[in-house]
């Protein structure tokens, strides 16, 4: 009776997740679906939770913190003020980010390998030099904001030996504090934000944002991530985070739901479509689970409180390993949407990667997502 699953070929590849983080959308793909044809089509065709909720307070750092650490804000303790001032996330926190959870798993494997070395098996770390940037193409070297440090006799809890390891983690974000304050600084990988651009570009972006009130951070993020995806450096990526922020900026500048906000929403929809087109071109889609969510909505020109507009969020899961919509049972549907929080993406990401959801997580996987 059972035919082969739709993406059976993809299972010969290691699992991979793309987490798309859309700042300040609330439930826009539902409320303003005319402005988000692509996102709305994902919402109606993939596994989606259009009435998911944010966590409180409805600010970016607490919510992206929960999405990336899988626990409520009172546990991870992240606030906009701290991360924007440059405070780094505690490397020894009881509530590590998804990246850190994966790196710790890698370190365990490497320790096993080192043990094997004692018994005469091959070692991968013997030709390393501290500071080696690894086998990056010039293209990727540009994006590096955290060095690839080859850690020969390293303290394994703060460095990851990567000189002969492929790049597995990457994060392209429009809001730099995600990379510098919410994700631990020790994570090896490719980390980009527009702050990595030349001084000239940064001045132009600052001017557009503050003076002309026409932010264009997202355009840079999109260009950079597209070029990364088409480069060989992305081939072994296990977790890629892509974050866009200009819709939120226009919400603050002109009002959430204002004409300018909706215009930016349409532009963002095009960015997400362009990202999917590239995934398709590079044959990533069939090998990748894509998870999309937003941190919060907004009301007037702000957010942070618990109104319906601010607490509104949504979650979409599609691609590899995801159960096709018509196989989901009514039972799954029933318990889905209202109870789902954007934070649950953390548990969804780990499950898609075949990693157990840690017992300290508040995030959980809504029923009926995976095959
Ligand atoms: Zn935000």
Ligand inventory reads: zinc ion
List segments where confidence is low: pLDDT < 50 over at least 5 consecutive residues: 1-10, 121-163
Q: How many runs of DSSP E, i.e. beta strands?
A: 7
The level-1 CATH class: Alpha Beta
Would you give the CATH topology? Alkaline Phosphatase, subunit A
Number of helices: 15
Strand content: 5-15%
Per CATH, which architecture?
3-Layer(aba) Sandwich
Pfam families: Phosphodiest (PF01663)
Protein name: 550_t:CDS:1
GO molecular function, one term: hydrolase activity
InterPro entries: Alkaline_phosphatase_core_sf, Phosphodiest/P_Trfase
Describe the overall structure.
This protein is α/β, with parallel strands linked by helices and 371 residues long. It has one domain: Alkaline Phosphatase, subunit A (3-Layer(aba) Sandwich), CATH 3.40.720.10. It is built from 15 helices and seven strands. A seven-stranded mixed sheet has the order 2-7-6-1-5-3-4, with helices on both faces. The radius of gyration is 20 Å and the shape is globular. 46% of the residues are buried. The N terminus is likely disordered. Bound molecules: zinc ion. The site of zinc ion (ZN) has 6 residues, from loops.
């Amino acid at each position: 009776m059972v035919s082969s699953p739709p993406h059976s070929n993809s299972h010969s590849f290691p699992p991979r997740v793309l987490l798309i983080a859309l700042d300040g959308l609330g439930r826009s793909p539902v409320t303003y679906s005319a402005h988000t044809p692509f996102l709305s089509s994902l919402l109606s065709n993939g596994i989606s939770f259009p009435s998911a909720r944010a966590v409180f307070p409805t600010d970016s750092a607490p919510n992206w913190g929960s999405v990336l650490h899988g626990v409520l804000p009172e546990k991870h303790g992240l606030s906009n003020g701290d991360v924007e001032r440059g405070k780094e996330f505690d490397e020894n926190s009881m509530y590590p980010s998804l990246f850190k959870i994966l790196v710790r798993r890698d370190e365990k494997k490497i320790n096993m390998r080192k043990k094997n070395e004692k018994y005469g098996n091959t070692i991968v770390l013997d030709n390393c030099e501290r500071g080696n940037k690894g086998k990056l193409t010039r293209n990727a070297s540009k994006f590096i904001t955290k060095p690839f440090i080859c850690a020969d006799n390293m303290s394994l809890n703060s460095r990851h030996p990567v000189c002969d390891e492929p790049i597995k983690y990457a994060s392209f974000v429009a809001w730099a504090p995600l990379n510098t304050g919410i994700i631990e600084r020790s994570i090896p990988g490719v980390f980009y934000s527009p702050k990595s651009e030349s001084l000239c570009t940064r001045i132009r972006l600052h001017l557009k944002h503050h003076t002309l009130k026409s932010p264009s951070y997202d355009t840079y993020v999109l260009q950079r991530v597209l070029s990364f995806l088409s480069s060989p450096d992305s081939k072994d990526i296990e977790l890629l985070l892509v974050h866009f922020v200009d819709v939120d900026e226009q919400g603050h500048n002109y009002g959430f739901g204002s004409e300018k906000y909706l215009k930016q929403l349409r532009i963002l929809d095009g960015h997400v479509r362009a990202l999917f087109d590239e995934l398709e071109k590079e044959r990533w889609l069939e090998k990748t689970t894509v998870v999309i969510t937003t941190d919060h909505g907004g009301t007037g020109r702000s957010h942070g409180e618990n109104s319906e507009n601010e607490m509104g969020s949504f979650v979409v899961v599609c691609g590899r390993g995801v159960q096709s919509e018509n196989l989901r049972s009514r039972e799954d549907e029933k318990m889905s949407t209202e109870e789902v929080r954007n934070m649950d993406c953390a548990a969804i990401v780990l499950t898609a990667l075949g990693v157990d959801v840690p017992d300290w997580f508040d995030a959980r996987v809504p029923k009926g997502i995976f095959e």
